[in-house]
Every structure is written in C-alpha cells, then in structure tokens.
Specification:
The complex is a heterodimer of chains A (119) and B (249).
Chain A (H helix, E strand, L loop, with lengths): L14 E9 L9 H21 L3 E7 L4 E7 L3 H9 L3 E2 L2 E2 L1 E8 L15
Antiparallel strand pairs in A: 1-3, 1-6, 2-3, 4-5
Chain B lengths: L1 H9 L3 E9 L13 H4 L14 E10 L6 H4 L10 E6 L2 H9 L5 E3 L12 H10 L2 E5 L1 H5 L1 H18 L4 E4 L11 H10 L4 H8 L1 H15 L30
Helix pairs in contact in B: 4-5, 8-9
The chains are: A alpha+beta (119), B alpha/beta (249).
C-alpha cells in the first residue's frame, strides 16, 4: 500500500469570485461597465463606508444585455461585498435587486451551474 | 402572487404569507386566511428534491396593551386556521409576557425604530427553553439607510443576550424585488454577529423548527405515553387469562 499524505489548506485562496445578475425590471437605460462598477462601489460605501468602498473589487466580465457580471474580490472582503450587494435597493432612484448566482474561490467553478441543469 | 413566483425561482422550499393585525384601531376581526390553493392550482417542485413547495399562512399580532393578548386565549375559530402565530410586543412588559406565557411561535423584534426597552436575560432564556424563536426582518434594510442602522443595532443587542440561538431571519417583502435568496440572507446573519453555522440555521433549521412548533400548537391537546411496568413474578403456574394481565396505560 502506497503511503499518502493529506494536506488541507484553509483560507488559502486569495480571491473569491462571484457571478451576479442585476435585476432592473423597468425598461430604462442599462448601465454600462463603468457605471456597473460605480454601482458596486456605491453599495459598498453605503453599507461599509469609505473603508468598504476602498475594497479591491474587479469586474472581470460584464454583459450588458443580461446585466450579469463576474466579480473578483479579495477573500477577506468577501462577506462585506456580498452583504453590500444584498442590501442594495436603488440604482438612480429605480428599484433594483442583485441576485448572486454562484460564488467560489476558484474561477473555473463558476463555469458550471448545477441549478441550471436541464435534465 | 408574483412575489411567490420569484420565491420559488430563487430556491426557497417553504413560504409563509403574513397577515398583520394592529390593535390600535377599534374594530379588528381576525379574517380567514387566504387559502394557498386559491393562488396556485399546483405548486412547483423544490429544486433538487421531489417534494412540492409549502405555502403556509401566518398571523402577526401587534400588541401594545396586555388586554390584546386575551384574543390569543379565546378560542376564536379563525385563529386556528393559521399555521404560525407571531406576536410583536411594543413594551418591555409585553415582551416578558410573550416570552414566558403566551402561546405563540415567533416573537418579532422591531427593526424600524430604536428599541424602547432593553433585552434582559431571564425572559430570553425562558423563551429559548420553550421553543420560541425571535424574528428579524431584513426588508427595511433594503429600503432606507436609517432603518439599516436600526436593524443592525437591534440585531447586535439581541445577539449579545441570546448568543445567537433561536433566531429566524425573514423578509417582509411587498414586492418581488425586495426578496433575496437564502444564501444572501444567511450572509446577512454574519453581519448581525452570528457564526456561520448559526447564520445558515437561522434561515433553514430554525425556520423549520418554528413551523413544527406551530403544528404542535395546533394539534396537541394532550399527550399519552406508555411506561413499561416491571413484570410481577407469577406464583401460580396456571396461565393467567389475557384479560387479567395488568394493562399499562
């Protein structure tokens, strides 16, 4: 029997990735990529102040048609970002909601979604 | 009805529709709850399992006077039709009464104003022993920034006293956009000071326990249990007929 060694790494991932979708039901102007990033930073500022707004968040992919994006945030700020996105209510005085579809510490894991499996 | 459709798509497995009764106005009658089967002829199936989504009905009583609690004791036929009963106390005395003697499932904690009373440990511990859950709402936090501060400060003071046990987080959503998914709400629990396991329980296991508490409240009128009696040694050898054997009740 070959001897094997098991290593468990806790909190080793540097970044956390989130796939989110913004729901804007009224048919108004859709935000472009820069405005989307501004919205995320505003959400962080409203909930966690200047320190939250300074959190290094990147928008890796943004699709304007479906208003869905993949965000990357440093692992220590993951809870702050997610809670800020959850509690955001308004975009330019229009009601909106963020739906977080998938989160993972690995970007590859965001490619498959078992909830959208059509059996 | 559109709110419920969104609930199902986001991934909840049981939803409760709330009616709020306020006692400040003069004439208040408890109306019959809207039966869920009227809204949806057939409920969709929960993602990932093969069971259908449950839709329950819930009543919230806003009490600001001890005489309002008499309604709970009266056996009004309409109260029994609701699955879950919640009470919203406005004063410290009523909070104490609700935790210790009232027959409810949930005690709502006000998140829209600064609490007029401080939580004390004895009534909270008694409520935890009785199986009553404390409820926090998160939808006001989405609408207004002052409400956000009150929500978080009230939640933190509750956590300090009850150490995160028996908490249920729910939404008072009036529009489908004010609803958030279950994992998002569990993340909010982390903001309030719960640990990760407690936060997830606040959305899943505690809610289910509150539902079961409501069911037992509706159904239990008395409890029968059997106790094994030690067998007495028979001196005679003749077989005792079955009807004479000691019946254990």
């Amino acid at each position: 029997a070959a001897a094997f060694e098991r290593r468990v790494l806790r909190r080793a991932a540097e970044h956390h990735y989130l796939r989110v979708r913004l729901e804007l039901p009224d048919g108004g102007a859709r935000p472009n990529a820069a405005q989307f990033k501004q919205l995320v930073v505003t959400a962080l500022r409203e909930l966690h102040g200047e320190v939250g707004a300074a959190l290094p968040v990147d928008v890796l992919i943004y699709e304007e048609k479906t208003l869905s994006a993949i965000l990357r945030v440093i692992s220590s700020g993951f809870v702050k970002l997610w809670s800020a996105l959850t509690l955001l209510g308004f975009y330019q005085n229009r009601r909106c909601a963020f739906r977080v579809l998938q989160t993972s510490p690995f970007l590859l894991a965001l490619s498959g979604n078992s909830r959208e499996l059509v059996l | 009805q559109s709110i419920l459709t969104v609930c199902f798509s986001v991934g909840y497995s049981a939803v409760a529709l709330n009616h709020v009764i306020d006692f400040k106005e003069k004439k208040q009658e408890i109306i019959k709850p809207v039966s869920p089967s009227e809204l949806f002829p057939s409920l969709p199936i929960v993602q990932g399992t093969s069971k259908r989504i449950k839709v329950l009905t819930r009543l919230t009583l806003v009490v600001s006077d001890p005489s309002h609690c008499n309604l709970l004791r009266s056996t009004s036929a309409n109260i029994r039709l609701y699955d879950i009963i919640a009470v919203f106390p406005k004063t410290e005395k009523l909070f104490h009464i609700a935790c210790t003697t009232l027959d409810v499932d949930l005690v709502c904690i006000n998140v829209t104003e600064k609490l007029p009373f401080y939580f004390r440990r004895p009534p909270v511990n008694m409520a935890i022993d009785r199986g009553i859950y404390f409820e926090l709402l998160y939808t006001p936090a989405i609408k207004d920034s002052t409400m956000r501060r009150y929500t978080i400060s009230n939640a933190i003071s509750l956590m300090q006293i009850c150490k995160g046990k028996n908490i249920v987080i729910s939404s008072a959503a009036e529009r489908p956009l004010e609803l958030r998914g279950p994992y998002d709400v569990a993340n909010l629990g982390l903001l309030f000071g719960l640990s990760e396991g407690e936060a997830k329980a606040a959305v899943s296991t505690n809610c289910r326990a509150a539902m079961l508490h409501g069911e037992t409240r509706k159904s239990a009128c008395g409890v029968v249990y059997t106790v094994k009696k030690p067998r007495q040694v028979e001196e005679e050898e003749t077989a005792v007929p079955a009807c004479k054997k000691a019946k254990t009740q």
